[in-house]
Amino acid sequence: MQNASSPAQDRAELAGAGRIVVKVGSSSLTTPDGHIDRERIRDLADVLAERRAAGTEIVLVSSGAMAAGIGPMGLPARPRDLATQQAAASVGQGLLIAHYTRAFAGHGLTAAQVLLTVEDLMRRVQHRNARRALRRLLDIGAVPIINENDTVATHEIRFGDNDRLAALVAHLLRADALLLLSDVDALYDDDPARPGARRIARVVDPRDLDGVAVGSAGRRGVGTGGMVTKVESARIATEAGVPTVLTSAANARAALAGEQVGTLFAAGTGRRPSTRQLWLAHATAGRGSVVLDPGAVRAVVREHASLLPAGVVKVEGDFTAGDPVDLCDEDGRVVARGLVNYDAAEIPELMGRSTRWLARELGPEYEREIVHRDDLVLLSAAER
């Protein structure tokens, strides 16, 4: 992620952005006892409505549904089991969107609820439908309010999904900027509560953060994200060419005006990756691994080729066709991740064989790659 622009130019781009994705965390919207803070929602809506009136399209990715459901359900703290998390999100989501609807209506703006999962932005049909729906909402002047669809989650609600979701939405809509709001005003080189901690004003390359201990939790502890996921979200967005500012909700107006608040992650200047590539690299975990021989590693990494059965020497884990898997060299280093075309149990019989041999001996349906190059992304360690 290299960028030749100056800090002032980066901030000017934010001030002049025509389409901005804003993500706000649970701790910025709720009271300590788990109820929605109406004043905070109203203040955020005021700031975003100002920018909307100036001609900027605004998309809001808002956490807070589960946190908002804790109080009304009489729960003492954020639940740990999936069923209760889903129930709290179901109760809280309705309350959350109702408050947003009233807050934006006071400015003559229509709030539109959009519930997504990260997978919706990866599958081709859902990806296309989501983009079309969001663009239409912007065309008619509405403010889309997006949240992770926690109520129907099929896996444990993961740490920081809305941060990553915001970055993927910014890429999906070709946003001009991403603004990540939380209860911390910036990224620091140490715990900001400690004397001498220094605000990191600008990040141009991931290596700028080498040696920086990025904290994993906010002050309130009611959300699912933390500084780690916000930095990862910024990396996703900047790789897609979207400059990102990380700051507190209290600084939202100043950040949108291009003032020197928070931490700015400068946009990369290379070719934008596809949403599928971003999803694979940053929003998935391998559900198993496939070990490659040196020739296959070279073909995948240097020649950007598909992974064929002939180059596989070992399979680890239990996965099914369509799952993300890690592609490793024989030393165990992960070099890529991709969507696998076979179940784990099928691959041992295919290893070391050419696709032509497999088609002849097992049938034409076996004349396919283990991972097709269009469903494969190199990980940063392999690209350096």
Automatic annotation (TrEMBL):
Q: In which pathway does it act?
A: Amino-acid biosynthesis; L-proline biosynthesis; L-glutamate 5-semialdehyde from L-glutamate: step 1/2
Q: Give EC number(s), comma-separated.
A: 2.7.2.11
Q: Name one GO molecular function term.
A: glutamate 5-kinase activity
Enumerate the SMART domains for this protein: PUA
Q: Which SUPFAM superfamilies does this one have?
A: Carbamate kinase-like, PUA domain-like
Which residues make up the binding site for ATP? K23, S182, D183, T224, G225, G226, M227, V228, T229, K230
Its annotated compartments are:
Cytoplasm
What NCBIfam families does UniProt report for this protein, alphabetically?
proB
The name of this protein is Glutamate 5-kinase
Originating species: Nocardiopsis mangrovi
Its gene?
A: proB
